[in-house]
Design goal:
This protein is of the alpha/beta class. Helices cover 29% and strands 17% of the residues. The longest helix has 15 residues, at 275-289. Catalyzes the conversion of dihydroorotate to orotate.
Length: 321
Amino acid sequence: MSMNVDLSVDIGGLRLRNPVMPASGTFAEGLEKVMDFNRLGAFVTKTITRELRTGNPLPRVVEQPGSLINAIGIPSKGVPYFVNATLPHYRPFDTPLVVSISAPTSEGFASLAAELSAVPGIAAIEANISCPNIEEDGKAFAMRADSTERVTKALRAATHLPLWVKLTPNTGNVPEIALAAEASGADAVVVSNTILAMAIDLKTFKPSLGNIMGGLSGAAIKPIVLRQVFQCARAVRIPVIGCGGISTAEDAVEYMLAGASAVQVGTATFLQPAAMTTIIDGLRTFCMRREIARVTDLVGGVVIEEADEPDLAWVDPVAAS
């Protein structure tokens, strides 16, 4: 079977050749040795902070069945290093560069976004608001709608670039947070960051991570984040980017059927460095086999059949005879 499949997608005004990109923190310049960077939908950098950060104490990673818990802690060499040393690696490639940023305050986010928006070669800003927020006693901005609204408004005022806001799965109502980001000017939301988790070493009885808790990623979290993507995509009109446990083209298709317009691949790249290009090829093959001309036709295509009886009818008490 031979047919042309249009894999291109539009994410908040940024046109991508396909919907596959790395998750922040899982991608490095050296990977061009194992894959063609010009095939990716976008680059997403490791998160950049204003301050120099060494990261969390060791050990920082522990393997779990089907997953990984990491407590890297966003090590960062600051903005000048990124502009002078990191950015030049990406300039030769014809792939949009999305820069992930983090800050402890709304003002810090805004100033970082403003400075980077003036740097040539940056196509979009991804604001990692699932990080500690000094203004909220250390809680992540994305834990609450009001703090999400405040930081997103500050970011929107600071940059003309497409603004993607990365949410946390560790709150009870992710769609409410997505709506707050949309209402405050976000062009897309990334759902989501890692799930807060921990492990204990049974030899020492100590936590397995130096930071005690870390972020769970990998295949184990996919059903949870898939559900959150489904909920968010039904709540907002802006694009949702799915991120969590994607390692195959079939995973990517599931996310798109749930409502994701694009996907980010993280832990899978550690296990198979060329995972993203394999997923791109698999997406094309899937669409060809199903005679789907445009990958965007998958978005939100999950089939929900209406129940034959009203929801929760079965919980009504049986009338006494």
